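Kindly review this record before class:
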Amino acid sequence: MTQNRLDHDQLHQALAALPGWQLLPDGRLQRQLRFPDFAGAFTFATAVALHAEHAQHHPELTIAWGRVVVSTTTHDAGGITAKDLALARSVDGLYTAPAGP
C-alpha cells in the first residue's frame, strides 16, 4: 500500500517537531548524528538498519568516522510520508548524543 506524500504545511509542521532533521532540496529528509568514534557510528547504523528492516522502510545510511548521516524518502510516493516521519522519530529514539567536553 502506497503512503500519501505530505503536503508543504504538513511537512513543515512535522519538521518543527523533529529537531536536527532538515529537508534537502531533492526532497529527502536528513539528519547527521555525531559519535565519539567509528565503532559508535557503526553500532548506531546497525541499530537503525535492524529497525528499518523490521519496519520495511529503509533509509540511506552514510557511515564515517564519528558520524552517521540518515536520509529518507518514500520513493513510491515521490516524497516524504508518515513512514519517513516514523523512521525519523525512531532514529531519534535510538540516538544518545555523546557527552560534551
The chain has a mean pLDDT of 92. The radius of gyration is 14 Å. The chain has one domain: 22-94. The domain at 22-94 is CATH 3.30.1360.20 (Gyrase A; domain 2).
